[in-house]
Amino acid sequence: MSAQNQSLGRGLGALISTDLDQSILQEDNERVQKLLIQDIVPNPDQPRRVFEESSLAELAASIKQHGVVQPIIVIRHKDGYRIVAGERRWRAAQAAQLNTIPAIVRSMRELEEIELSLIENIQRVDLSPLEQALSVYKLQQQFNLGLDEIAKKLGKATSTISNLTRLLQLPDSAREALRQGRISEGHARAILSLKAWPEKQGELLRSIENNGWTVRQAEQFATAAKAGADAKSARTRTASETELTKSIGRKLGTKVQIKHTAKGGQLIIRFDNDEHLNDISQKLNLSS
Fold first, then answer.
1. Set 27, 53, 58, 87: catalytic member
2. pLDDT tens digits, residue range 14-64?
3. In sequence order, what are the beta bridge partners of 257?
4. Any catalytic annotation for residue 30?
5. In the chain, what percentage of residues exceed pLDDT 90?
6. Which pTM was predicted?
7. Which residue from 59, 80, 144, 229 has the least number of CB within 10 angstroms?
8. Domain positions in the chain
9. Which CATH class is domain 3-107?
10. Three-state DSSP class for 83?
11. Whole-angstrom distance, CA of residue 34 vs CA of residue 102
């Protein structure tokens, strides 16, 4: 398994905030119960066989301080319970010397119904990208599925599912804008590309909403920002037309745009037909 797949296999819990986890599980809150850790056994078919000790130790330390925030999912098994999702939390709770752990007890029939419902939900055409991402996240959490498995069940490429779930990493303001349809998924991906620069993410979101930027303009801003430009410079470099391009356009009698890239850029000169192109070439003294 590649490093990327291993990272994805750890689940999205490491990528998004705890409050979002709780909002997803809210419908199950009344079903959460405390189970004795000794009554729970791991799933022998669990695809993950190796649990990194240092990572478990960090989680155990967090559990000692805050408790187990997100319940594990179990089914009844013999005289106790078998883990469906949350073995890492269960192991860390053991290391933290807890006697009980919060859990949601499901039946196999119920799990099958939930899985089918979530898969159908993700495939709905009227569902927003963010709502699809939340459904994928819940499918992963409820069934301990990797993104490869989820993609196979949905008949989609793993990269498509991965890009979808990344939307959950958006800042709250951008997530809300996407939910309300004020920005598109393409805009959201441009904002995500600036994850290491939260202030620039906010600046880009405001520019998209206030100036009606296209996805391409948002991408140009992100490219300039990642290259080190401050917000003002990035906005200037994002503009498809500047005073300079307008001046050039007036001399050539056509529309001229500038397209910045990470290194340099391109000057785009529009023409309508071959005759128009010949006219522009004469003005540039390019005619033979």
1. 87
2. 433 333 334 334 455 457 889 999 999 987 766 555 677 888 889 999 998
3. 268
4. no
5. 22
6. 0.53
7. 80
8. 3-107, 170-238, 243-283
9. alpha beta
10. strand
11. 5
Tokens coding 56: 């478990």
- Residue 214 CA from chain centroid, whole number: 20
Q: What is the pLDDT of residues 240-260, one digit of tens each?
A: 667 788 888 888 888 887 765
Asked if 102 and 69 touch (Cβ cutoff 8 Å), the reply is no
pLDDT per residue as tens digits for the range 115-146: 777 777 677 666 778 888 888 888 877 777 78
* SS3 state at 69: coil
> Cα(179)–Cα(166) distance, rounded to whole angstroms?
14
Beta strands 265-269 and 256-260 are antiparallel
Residue 145 corresponds to which tokens in the numbers above?
Answer: 């599925």
Query: Residue for token digits 């005759």?
Result: 275
Which amino acid, one-letter code, is at 156? K
Q: Is 222 exposed, middle or buried (0-12, 13-18, 19+ CB in 10 A)?
A: buried
The whole-angstrom distance between residue 237's C-alpha and the CA centroid of its chain comes to: 27
